[in-house]
Each structure stands twice: as structure tokens, then as C-alpha cells.
Specification:
CATH topology of the largest domain in chain A: Ferritin
CATH superfamily of the largest domain in chain A: Ferritin, core subunit, four-helix bundle
Radius of gyration of chain A: 26 Å
Number of domains of chain A: 2
Helix content of chain A: 40-55%
Pfam families (chains A, B, C, D, E, F): Mn_catalase (PF05067)
Oligomer: homohexamer
Region (Disordered) (chains A, B, C, D, E, F): 259-284
Number of helices of chain A: 9
Distance between the termini of chain A: 62 Å
CATH architecture of the largest domain in chain A: Up-down Bundle
Family (chains A, B, C, D, E, F): Belongs to the manganese catalase family.
Strand order of the largest sheet of chain A: 2-3
Largest interface: E-F, 118 and 118 residues
Number of strands of chain A: 3
CATH class of the largest domain in chain A: Mainly Alpha
Structural class of chain A: mainly alpha
Protein name (chains A, B, C, D, E, F): Catalase
InterPro entries (chains A, B, C, D, E, F): Ferritin-like (IPR012347), Ferritin-like_SF (IPR009078), Mn_catalase (IPR007760), Mn_catalase_dom (IPR039377)
């Protein structure tokens, strides 16, 4: 179960509210590489964890709980960037409504055009669980496979795209408050990349974990096609690299190259049945 | 641009058509860890690849093209498993319609209850781009970040969950034809896990690539919070492991533990404006 | 069954077409608090209504039918706001295409940037069943629970958020025609809020209806935890109010406060099976 | 920010694991009336709350935090219901795979047909953020309008449909452990219905809050159409009730009935432009 | 604006309620080829129709209004199929709850396994705007392009897939009441196919309408590539037919065949910028 | 199976990169009328084709394969339009980040406001499988019905809306490179409209194919309601046309007009059961 402290994980301040940056920050809340995703992903991995010990369940709970605080920070930052524009701007604009005020600034920052419209019309100038184009987050992005190694790679992927996003947001703003918040979140993403890779190492590293799942006897997979790069170019060329020659990453074989060609038959399905809603012409 | 050969990549045969297994196979077509996903993910990574050389773009094209053939194999397998039930079963059932025939078998395999209904009602007993519960694939699962290392981790994650799925499908069927097809696809997933990890090694491995993105100067992130595990348990306990002590995975620091507590303030948003659609009670 | 009159429910006129306002109006068509939602919600509640009399079914049909006319008004308003810009603006712009014309005005109102692009590219300058950011309406928002009291609260919620939206739209435009249309729709939302609350009163009010569903014998719920506010703050503080002391809203008890703590056990799931696609390390 | 305790909010035990009931429970996790919805809804209402005081923000945080623990309980219950079937059943079945074991029981409870397939194929026999038919939760269901009264009605609606669901689940199982867990969750839903209604009363009750939003001057809405029931039946009949006569719920007027008819014009849009991608026949 | 009559368009009776057939019928309500789709599609085409006359707008309104009554019939049929099972069946089962009753029948028809679970858990045994696998209808399927010929082809497509579905449903049931309802709906689909094709003929038929849109000067399209079949087989074979030789359908040219090959260049994108969140290795 | 050539199907050049046009082009990639849709639609129709011969399966494979190359062209065009703005513009802007550079141009073309934000934040200035408002493509738009005539009408509809879109894009740009690419794609859409209509002619044309499906004995449909236009206007008027009189399109009957009225009963559902989660008031 859970507790809260109403103070934020880390200070969130905005020197100059900017609705356009609020839009960008929404990607870090409701984007597929955002904080709702990692929070819920770690929770579902924890709650469904099956193993002889609860170590990984426990660790995931610590970090999932941390991530709630990240959503909170970002939601606060979005609301702050959507705050009332300065009084002088209001006066310059003819607007006597909040929308007019937001529209009236004359600068790109205050334009309704640069905003996700739902932030105003549906949320009343607050954050929503949507991405930077207003698309709601879909929970199908919560990857929790029941395989701890697969999950850890999913987590590294999530924290890698997450940190790429945070860096882009950092580069996109010149607001000192926002840069400070983001330099913290970028740091936490660094740690979380490390953390999930540390689990993989503790589990024995690539040679022990690969191929995922390692519980399937590898001699039951097609031994002729498990370490060869398929070249599908019509002219037979292919890019050489670490993946076309030399020892495989798990140390069990050598990479080779296969010029791809059909190994199977031309498929032929049976004709349609008379009573299947097909056209007469399809019925044998 | 692209060419096709109407023969299949690998033989697809079904000894005993089983609509219930057709449902399961749909997960490998339109599930989030399925073949449409990897196919389109590699294509979009290739088409948007920015780098001094085209090596990774080229390589991704080879494998993306290979994956089209995997969707094709699975779609063929689904249709075959949905084929007309054996004549004797038909005769046993009173049904003279295709639905009746499928329903009438009396065995779990032939029951309409075990099928995705759209496979019959919408697709006419063919495969569809949906998962094993009938949910259509959503293209937001195509991860292509513009960062080659992040993309490679996304690809390892996709092939890890993909192979986990293929193994579960292999274990779920006792049809020799289906087992043969799957033992091939499991092997290709093995290779693709290797392949994306090989790219990461060629790029310099963990120490060179981490943290992703490595182009952000690491001294600009919060140095006090980039290598410490946050313990969020209310009683101060935490699970010890590779992530709480010892050298970090990139070799640049030591892992430590931080008993989490608020570092920020209690956030206070301004009151609502009179003209913002709030209640009077919210207006300062 | 249904009839139509090709005249509108209420006059819809636009003094000065404004594509940016067309975008805003889309929220009232295809937003989650828009008119498609209430229309379909009332229809599905009516069509599935189970009760000894058809009174509520009948009433819902009346209002659902009214709401079709509201979608129609808004769709007309969107198309009107997307009408050809004035000839003089066209001439000023170099554009000889409709897109150019729309883009060429030089004012915020006529900019393609302020438009939902699909309104032009997919709809040909007409309304679509999408929200103000271009996201299509999803029918999962049609709440029809089979419980009349729950449905009425859902309806009050829908008309409350709906009227909030209409007020925001009213405040956002200075077009007299649009203000007139909206002052009518705001009035209808007022009535509909009243209407669903009137049903709740006719059903006996809060004391008779609560808790919803009232058909579950209340002595079968956990009597120790049905009227106490759970304080989850780590420092034991909580906001006092009507919900922490005094008689409950149904008059059956007194509100109290519970300092939250775990009442249950640490959950332990069994280890993964050898054949479940997990890693070997997860298998006991 | 947030803390956790790894013990559950309330005991979760399953006497006889039942994959079919696991499917049902999924509705309470990822259904539109489930726990992810209320948890996130209260969080976003709290984080975006604008008011002269932080009372409602604070209160919402308490309950949002409580709700995380409810998702956790349900996720645990789903995983437990998906646990290994009893050894004797395994032995009866010929299956040596986990799927086979689940399928092999011969009873409805253990049939793969009764399961959400993704719970097995994607989740590895764990809970997922999906509903009882396998549809992922979509965050567009998080209602946070920026208007505190509208939000409270949304919350009452959510807890009403939520308790209806919990009662249906209670009625659907004969497992004592599950009944005990649900009798607790039903009680909490009772309290939460009370709690949000208490806020509405503290804000002044219906007369003070209606129409929502109360900050829009009511004399600016169409006074001729804000308290009359629209009868849309083609034969002029309508169901009489509390909504057709007598004082309105806010005490400001009397309900009347209006035989609906068009008050507006037949709309005529301009012809299509020559360069708008229309057919020639549409161009004036 | 709109009126209703509470009687149904056509009689809906169910001789023997069958929850499994209720599930199938849901496809005709909320499936992509269902009645919500055509109803809303015709409405949006009507409301956005731009042309010198209102003929097509008017006609579309007539048929859109008719379609509301079809959704109503199907929703009624779903609820009827979900009705209380006969008392004797109830008595046979030990169940004293509605779920138990539905489950307890012992026949495939009454099994909860064969039902969409949301029909029970969320809808309380009523129809919902979902398809036969429980997936909610998404309004992106409302095709209204602003081009009348394109719209008519979309409508023929909708009514063709719609009638295919209705025929499959007819074949799937042996309930006389349901067969009668469906034989009516199949007839209306026949008429609607005719109706939209009649519009295309009235507009001048294929030669006048093609290519859609006909307002784009055809000499501005690539004259070398507008009437040739692209053969993409790697071995140069292709299926001969009406599309490879002979006069084109619009009578303006002859079909030819082109052995496909690249006509363009190898694309080369610029390297990533140093500040774009890419890896260092991608930066030129 | 499949092969690729890394050269493009047709030259793609951009004279002056324009992020606003990149946004528009996204509709042709991930819009419901875009190239992913037709590509996947033709593939799934091919892979599931049931007929006595493989002719249509083969033909569909040729064209599906061609369409991959169209997605590739458009993805390349999007990335090119998102390329680094000219050096002089960069210098004019104060920006030292990629976002700043894009924002800094001062012209509509270079404004971040005119971009889909995910193209920058998630994709790193590359194409994504989303539409022009940032909504991801949903695979439910892949129509493959198992009925060849229905499928062909779906394909004509797809290529008609697709060409309408391509024409709008052509009209929206003044970039010579983009116009050249689009004049090619418009031509291919012309051919594909022809191609699917040619299949319908080869199958016997309207009289042979209608009503779709033609395998359902037409005398089993309601003969009184299969060729009459339903007039639903409350005043009895209706628009006369090809659809109200004269021979039907299949030549089997004459069109007539029916003044619509209820032919069925008022539906009455049973009351709710005591244990179904309804309110007591609903229980008979």
C-alpha cells in the first residue's frame, strides 16, 4: 500500500510561464516514452513477479513508487506553464476571457495555436494524461511479460527513449526553473538505465540470459537459422558488420550470412464455403 | 522499393486445423510483441536513420523486409487453422452453415467460443491485424526515436518479448506443422536479439553508449542524483543488489542508496480565473 | 424509429468564419464531454433500460433524440467556420488553392497552423467526429451501467463537463452568431443537469439511492471501512471537512478518520513454471 | 512524492484459483469503471486543482494514494487466480506445458477459452492494465475538468459504476477469499460515494453549485430554454415526472414541457471550391 | 432536427434467448462494418455536404435517420438475447446470482465464456457500442471526404461489408425471430448498395467520375504511370486479367504492364545534429 | 517472401524543407486514407484469399508490395522536410538547439507550432506512423472481408479517398520536388482505382455481383423492403433521383419510395434481477 507527502520530489519552478512548453512537457507525462508508462510498467512487473525470491518485486516497487512523484512534478510544471499570463499582457490584449488572454499576448508563447486545445477546453489549464499532440495515453504500452530479462530490456528501452525525450525538452527551453527540473529528471533516467542493466548483470549477463527466454531448450529451435543474417537485397549486397561475421554475442556460435530465398511453398487456401458470405465466384 | 516471391519464407503446414490455436497465433501478428510491430519498427527506423554512413539504415532494411515474410507465414497459419473442419465432424454436427460447422464439432477446438469472433464475422475465416483477444494493432507501438542506441534497446526488447511469445505458442500446440513453423521463428528471434546487441557492441558497448543519449554532456545532469538507488519504502528497508553498491555499469561512479524524501516544495497553483469555467468557489 | 426535419433545432449563423474556432468547436462534437457522447449515452441507456415501467426508457429517448440535433448544429457551425475566406483575403494571398487561401490570410484566424489538419485533408473543410486536437471519439465513453442511479450520476457528470466546455467556447469567441448558438446550448445543458437530478429525486434522493447499487445488502459490506476517510499522508495530517466528521450523506452513520496502514499481508506469488516462457532464474 | 509498504492494504487470498474469475477481475483493474481510472482521475484532479485554498487538492491526494493500493490488491488477486492448477488436475491432463495444464482441467474454470489470452501469452499469467475482454485502458477516461463541482459529479459517477461492478463480481464468485476482498472494496466505494457528495454539500449543495459552472452569469444563457423538457416524440406524448412540472432542482424556476420543433433554418453550405479535391459536380 | 417513435422500425423477437448470439450481434452494432458506422457516416456526409444543390445532403439525411432505427433494433435484440434464462434452467443451476444463472445452464449458449464480459459486468446485460470481441467502436471509421464520388464508394463498401456480416449472422442462428429481423436488415442493405450506386450513375457513371477526384486536371498527373499494372514479382511473372490489357475502365487509355524497378535514388538523410538527442556516433 | 532495393520507387526531392508540409504529408502515411492502410489492406486480402484460383491473391500481392515503396517515399519526404533549416536561418535565430533552430525562423514554415510535436520529441525529426494531427494509425482500418467484391469496393473507396488526399497535398505545396513526387503518386492512385474496378468487371459487373454477397439466395431477404427508398422526413417530402424511380442498378426491380413508419412493436425488456447490480427500483 502507499503513502504520500504533499511536497514535491524536487523543486519545480517556472520563471516565465509558456503554454507552448506546457505542450511539450505533456509528452513526458502521456507520451509512450513518458512517466505514466514507466510508473505503471514497473508496478505491473512488480505485482506479477514470479520468482523464488521477492528481490526483484521489491526493487521494482521502490522505483515504481518513485515514478509517481515524477508524473506529479511534470503535471505541476504543465499547470504552472499554463498559469495566467502577466497582467500587462492581459491589458495589451482586448481579451476579457481566459482564452482571449492566452491568445492575446501576441507572442508565439501565448498563442492558443501552440497549445493542445484540450489543456484549455477540457482540463481548464491543467495537465492531462495525453501526449504533446493531445493523444491520450494507452495502457497497451505497459510491458510486463512475465520474463524478467525481457522486462529488463523493456525497461532499458523505456528509460533510453525517456532520457532522449528529457534531453530534447531540456534543449527546447531557456527557462531556468524548467532546466533545473529537467537536469534532475535526466539524472534519474541515467540511474534507471544503470539499474535495469545491473539486474541483467546480476542475472548472469548476456551469455547467461540469451536468448530470452533462456528456459527454452535451444536445441529445439532451428539450428540452421539462429545465427545467420538474412540478406534480403535483390542484388545480393548487404552491409557488413559485427552481425555478419565473428563470434555471436552469447559466444555459442559464429555469425554467418544467408542470401534469403523462399524455403517454403506457395500457400493455397481452400475455396470459400457456399455459406460463408463470400461471392459465388470464390466457391469451388 | 520492394519485390515479392509468392512462395513462403519457410514451410507452413497444419496437421489438424484448430480455430483455438488460430486465436493464439493472432497475438504473433497483431499483438504488441508481434510481427507487424517489428516489421514496421525496423522500417521506420531505417527510413528515418540519420548518421554519417548508411550502414544501419541498410541493415535495418534487410531485416524489416525479412519480417514481412513472417507476418505472411503467420497469416497463412491462421487461415489454415480456420479451414473447414474435417467432413466427419461436419456430419456429426447438424450445421449446414460455416458457423454451425465450426460450432458443431463438440470439441473445444472447434467451438466458436474459443475463437476471436471477428475472425469469422469480419474476416471470413482469415487472419486480421489484431491480437489474440481481437484488439486491433495500434501503430503507436512503433518505436523509432532518432537515437540509434535507444532504438537498438527497443529492438532487443521487442525480440525478447517476441521470442517469449513464440515459445509460449510452441508450448501451447501439439501440431507438428505448427511446431515446425514456430521452431523456425524462435530461431530467427534468437538471431535478431543477437543482431541488435551486436550493433550496440559495434557502437562501443555500454560504456560508450551510456547514458543514452550520450551526446548530452553528462556534467549538465544532476550529479547528486544520477547513480543512487532511491529507497521509497516507508520503513527504510530496501533490497540490496548489484544496483545498490559497487561500480556503476558505465564504470564512471559507484552505486549508492538514498532514503527518499521530498526535496521540493508543496506546489501551489494560482486560483482559477473568473472566466475559466471553474466554480465561483475556486476563484480567489 | 426516427424522423428528421431538415431545419436546424436552433439558428446557426457565423458572422466571420474562423477556422481556429472551428477547431475549438470540434471538442463539443467529438470530445469526451461532447454531444456525440451524450446522444449515444442516452440512447444506449434507453435501449437497455430494465425496470417495471418504461418511464425512464421513454424519457431518455426524448432527450437522446434532442441531442442528435445538437451534433447537427455544431457540425454545421464547424463547416461554416471553415467556409471560403473573403475574396479580398484571397487576393492578398498568392494562393490559388483552397489550402493556400486558408493559409494566406496573414491573420491567426486563417492560418492552417491553427486548424486540425484532418478537417482540411480528410474532411474537405467539414466537421468530423474528432476532438479539438484531431483525436477521434471513442465509444468506450458511452456509460450505460444497467443501474439507473449510476447512470443518472454519469449523466449529471456529462452535462456538467459539457456545460463547462460550452461556457469556455462562449468565452473564446466574439462572433455574435456563435455566441447566440452557444447561449442556447448552455441553456439546454442547464436543463439536462436539472433533469437527471430530478430523476434521482423522484427515485427517493440520496438517502434512498445510496450507496449505489442499493440492491446490495449493506450489511454484507465491510462495516468497519465504509464511512471512514483514509488518511494516507506519511506525517499523519489530513484536511478536515464535511467528510471527516459529522453525519454521513445517507444519514446512516458518522464520518470518521482512519490513519491508513497495511491491513493485509506481503503477497507472494508462486515461482514461474519451467514451461511458461520465463527465465530459468525465475523457476523455483 | 510517495512511499510504499510492501504489505497489502487488505488481505487477498484465493481459496481455489480460477482463471475465469481472473478475467472478470480484470474489469476492476483496466475497465472504464475500474481502479486505474479512479486512481489517476483523483491524482490529475489534485495536481491541477486551482482554488484559494489547497483543501480539495490535499483531500484528493489522500484518496488517490489509497487507490494505488486497490489496483495492487486486484493485480495480486488476478495473479493468484492464474496460479498453477492443483496437481491432481495436472496429472489428469496430458499437458506438460503451462498452457496445456490450464487447458487440461476439463472444467470451465480452467479452460483457456474462458481466459483473456493476453493474460497468458503476453503477461505470463499476471494481471495487465486491460479490461475483462482484453481491451487496454485508455487514459481519455481520466476526467479532470478544472471545475470542482463537475469533477465531484464525475467522481460520484465513477464510484457508483465502480461499486456496481464490485457487486457484480461479488455475486459472480463463491470463493471466500475473493468475497472477503470484495466486501472490503465495496465498502470503500460506499465511503468514496459519500466523500464526493460531502464535498458538494460543503460547497453549498445543489442550489449553490447549479448549474455547473456557476461562474457563468445565468442571465446570459437562453432563458426560454433552460428549464423546459423537450418532447421529441412524433405523436406529442411524453412521460410525465419530476422533470416536467414543479419547481426546478435549483429552486429558481418551474419545469415546463416544450413540444420540440425546429427553431432554426435549413442550413446551406457554400459549394466546394474548384481546387479542394471535390468532384466537378460539387463546384458552383 | 429529429423526432422519434418509440415503436421499432421492424419487429424484433427472440424465441430462445442466447447470450452467445448476443455477442455476435454486437458486431453489427459496434463493429467497423456495423450500424453505428453507417448511421454516423451518412450524417457527417450530409452535414458537411458542399454542392450547388442540397439534393445529396437531403437524401443522406433520410438514410442516416433510418439507420438510427437499425442500431435500436440490434440493441434491443442484444438485450433480449441476454434476458433471464428460463426458470427451469435457473432451478437446475445452483446459482442464485445473475451471473451464476447465466453460467449455470450447462449449455454452450448460456456460458459466461461465450459472452463478452463487459455486456454483463459493465452493461448489466444490455447492448454496448462495442464489437463482437468487446472492442469499442472508434469514430475514425466515419468516412466523409468532402468528395461525393469518394463518399459514395465508401458507402457501397460499408453496405457491402455490412450485408456480408448480416448474412453471416443469419447463417449463424436458428432462432426464427432473429432470422426474421436479419432477413429485413439484409434487404435494407441491398437497397442501400443500390442507392449509392444510383448516385454514382446519376453523377455520370464511371467515365464521368473517374479518376476521383475528377476536378484535378488529369494531364497534371504522371501520364507514364497512370494506366500500367506494376509487376513486383522478383521472377517477372504476373497474373493476367482485365487489368493488364485492353481499354481502361474510364475508356481513356489501354492497360499495360510495367516490370517494376527503382526509378528513384538511394535516399540519404543528413546526419543528426549535435543537439538533437541522437548518439554521438550519428553526428557528422 | 520479400526483397528490397535500397533505391526509391520514384525520385523524392525537396527544394525547400518545410516542417509544416511534413505535417501534412504524415496524413498520407498514417492517415486512414494513407499508404500504410492500402499496403496492409492488400496484403491481408491476399494472404486470406479463398477462391478456386490464386489469380486475385497473386494480383493483390503485386500491388501490396508496390505500396511498401510508397510508404517509403513519403517517409523519406517527411524526413527531408524536417531537415536542418538553411544556415542563414539558423544564424538569424538565437537558437543553439535543434528545437530553437526550428522555431527560430520567424516564418510559418519553420515554426514548431505548425509541426506535429512528436515528429520532433519522439521521432527525432523523422516520419512516424501517425496522421497529420499526430494520431497513430489503428489497424482496424484494414478491411479484408473474405468477400472479393466487398473487398474491391473497399479498395476503390480507399484509392478514391487516397487520391483526394494526394490532390489536396499537391495543391498545398509550391515545392517542385514535392509536386513531382505527388504527381506520380496521384497517377498510381488513378491506376489502382481502375484496377479494382477492372476486377469487379471481370467478375461480371454490377448485375453479377450485386447484392454483395451474391451467394445469399435473394429470395430469402425481405422482398418488400429491398428496393424502396425510405423517406424519413417528418413532413413526407423527399429528394427525387435515380434512387426513387426507374430500374434498379442490378436490373431486377424498380425503385419505389416508402414513407417510413414503425413496422414493429414498442420493445419491453424484462425488469432487472435482484442480484444484477441494479437499483431496487428497477426490480419487478
Amino acid at each position: 500500500m502507499y503513502y504520500h507527502d504533499k511536497r514535491l520530489q524536487y523543486p519545480v519552478t517556472v520563471d516565465k510561464p509558456n503554454p507552448a512548453f506546457a505542450r511539450m512537457l505533456q509528452q513526458a507525462i502521456g507520451g509512450v516514452e513518458g512517466e505514466i508508462r514507466v510508473c505503471m510498467q514497473y508496478f505491473f512487473q512488480a505485482w506479477g513477479n514470479r520468482a523464488p525470491t521477492t528481490t526483484y518485486r521489491d526493487m521494482l516497487l521502490h522505483t515504481a513508487t518513485e515514478e509517481i512523484g515524477h508524473i506529479e512534478m511534470l503535471a505541476t510544471a504543465v499547470a504552472m506553464n499554463l498559469e495566467t499570463a502577466p497582467a500587462s499582457v492581459q491589458e495589451e490584449g482586448a481579451a476579457d476571457s481566459i482564452v482571449g488572454a492566452v491568445m492575446g499576448g501576441g507572442s508565439a508563447k501565448a498563442s492558443i495555436e501552440g497549445m493542445i486545445h484540450k489543456n484549455l477546453l477540457t482540463g481548464g489549464l491543467a495537465a492531462m494524461p495525453i501526449d504533446s499532440d493531445g493523444v491520450p495515453f494507452n495502457m497497451s504500452h505497459i510491458y510486463a511479460s512475465g520474463n524478467v530479462a525481457a522486462d529488463m530490456y523493456c525497461n532499458v528501452a523505456a528509460e533510453s527513449t525517456g532520457r532522449v525525450l528529457a534531453v530534447r525538452l531540456f534543449n527546447a527551453t531557456d527557462d531556468d526553473g524548467m532546466k533545473k527540473m529537467l537536469h534532475y529528471m535526466i539524472a534519474r533516467d541515467t540511474m534507471h538505465q544503470q539499474q535495469w542493466l545491473a539486474v541483467l548483470e546480476e542475472l548472469g549477463g548476456a551469455s547467461a540470459n540469451l536468448p530470452v527466454p533462456n528456459s527454452f531448450p535451444q536445441d529445439m529451435e532451428d539450428q540452421a537459422n539462429n545465427y545467420n543474417f538474412y540478406a534480403t537485397s535483390v542484388d545480393g549486397t548487404y552491409p557488413e558488420g559485427r552481425w555478419t561475421a565473428g563470434p555471436t554475442m552469447d559466444g555459442r556460435d559464429e555469425f554467418t550470412v544467408f542470401q534469403n530465398k523462399p524455403l517454403g511453398q506457395e500457400p493455397v487456401l481452400g475455396p470459400a464455403r457456399p455459406d460463408s458470405g463470400a461471392q459465388d465466384q470464390q466457391i469451388g
